[in-house]
């Protein structure tokens, strides 16, 4: 600043000493704050090997992830040493996830590019089946779920999630038009509808939970910020991440998070089991 003033005002009297530079706090990364929030909600517990609370993954498991996306969930499972099978309609995502899994101790990796109608996987293959934020995209949820059930072994555990209707309804009129158009979210699924879908597919529901107030608000701000999802750098998003991190670090942060998650949640998660005695 002093050098700039000297150029602008070369004949000005010598300026007084410049005050110390202000300490600028490090900007919080939206995604890292979201990861911290997810861990507090029960995701990615390394000590117990739980992908989500109540869903343990071990080296003995054959885990199928349908709609693997960027591979975050299945990478955790690969680190547990399980055999991993991934399936997604997007060939680029399948290849990226395959590469991401290459540095894990997964005992085997099998990849499929498929629309899951049907899944190119034999009956009774998997002991663990994961499909997160997929059902809201598919044309026929009953058919999709029947395929997931078919490829699970008797006694297989299922981790299924869809957007919570509280968050989806909040996005109406604010989200970009394509958010609620094919191939994106073509249906909003209530809690009762989700439970009915899973039960009608022949699975026994063990738990049904919800979380993600942070992401619900973040998405609203994202639409307003109009930035690239791969580089969501905007004051609205950065300040929100700072605020949420400060809340989580406060004495009653966990309690307040739980209260907010119960009102407006980004996701609802069902842990279920396929009936029968494990083979």
TrEMBL record:
GO terms for molecular function: methyltransferase activity. It comes from the Bacteria. One of its GO terms (biological process) is methylation. Residues 64-158 form the Methyltransferase type domain. Coiled coil: none annotated. Pfam families: Methyltransf_11 (PF08241). InterPro entries: Methyltransf_11, SAM-dependent_MTases_sf. The keyword Magnesium does not apply. Keywords: Methyltransferase, Transferase. The keyword 4Fe-4S does not apply. This is Methyltransferase domain-containing protein. It comes from Pseudomonas rustica.
């Amino acid at each position: 600043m002093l050098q700039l003033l000297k150029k602008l005002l070369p004949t000005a009297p010598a300026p007084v000493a410049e005050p110390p530079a202000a300490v600028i706090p490090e900007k919080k990364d939206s995604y890292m704050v979201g990861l911290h929030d997810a861990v507090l909600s029960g995701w990615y517990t390394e000590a117990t090997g739980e992908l989500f609370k109540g869903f343990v993954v071990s080296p003995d498991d054959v885990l199928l992830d349908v709609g693997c996306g960027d591979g975050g969930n299945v990478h955790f499972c690969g680190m547990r040493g399980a055999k991993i099978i991934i399936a997604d309609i997007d060939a680029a995502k399948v290849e990226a996830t395959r590469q991401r899994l290459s540095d894990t101790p997964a005992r085997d990796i099998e990849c499929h590019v498929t629309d899951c109608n049907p899944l190119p996987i034999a009956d009774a293959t998997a002991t663990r089946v994961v499909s997160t934020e997929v059902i809201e995209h598919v044309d026929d949820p009953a058919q999709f779920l029947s395929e997931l059930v078919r490829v699970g072994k008797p006694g297989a555990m299922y981790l299924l999630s869809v957007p919570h209707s509280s968050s989806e309804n909040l996005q109406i009129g604010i989200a970009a038009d394509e958010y609620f158009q094919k191939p994106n979210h073509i249906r909003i699924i209530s809690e009762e509808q989700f439970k009915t879908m899973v039960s009608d597919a022949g699975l026994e529901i063990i738990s049904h939970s919800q979380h993600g107030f942070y992401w619900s608000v973040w998405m609203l701000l994202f639409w307003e910020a109009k930035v690239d999802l791969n580089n969501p750098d905007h004051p609205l998003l950065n300040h929100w991440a700072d605020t949420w991190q400060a809340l989580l670090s406060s004495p009653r942060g966990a309690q307040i998070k739980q209260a907010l998650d119960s009102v407006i949640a980004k996701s609802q998660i069902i842990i279920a089991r396929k009936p029968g005695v494990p083979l």
